[in-house]
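thread: overnight batch results

M.L. [08:02]
morning all. the overnight job finished for the chain we discussed friday. pasting input first so we're all looking at the same thing
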Amino acid sequence: MSPLIESFVRHFGEMGSRWGINRTVGQMYAYIVLSDEPVNADELAAELKVSRSNVSMGLKELQSWNLVRLLHVPGDRKDYFTAPEDVWEIAMTLINERRKREIDPTLTVMRDLLMENPRSPSDQYAQGRIEEMYQLIEMLTHWSREIQQLSPKQISRMLKLGAGVSKLLG
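M.L. [08:03]
and the structure it wrote out:
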């Protein structure tokens, strides 16, 4: 692994632990993303100096997040993995998966709590606050889904407008 790739892989592992994923899984994903050829589990274990079983568990996690694709190389019995070439596809996959795992369950709990009859003034106040949070999360979720309907080029243009919009609204 070149120093450039190693530096990024190590940093991505550290950042991964802050994003709620295992450090090794973060390193594995960074390595796969930066690899110009499909990668197998033995290569990951050797390059990252981690156990093969750790790599197997990490690959299962990455597959459950739909962040890697399984490939079969003709004449080779090993499983190979790649990441999408398009960084926008990676970003959209992460947004969708995080929404399914974090946002949707939270909205469900909030809806259930809003259906309950408040038993006290403090419960009534709490429900009002929950309603405000629920509405905000729903609005952001709807906005996110709308954004995902745009092409990467359109999203990029929109993001570049951000500085101009803040000046207009300033």
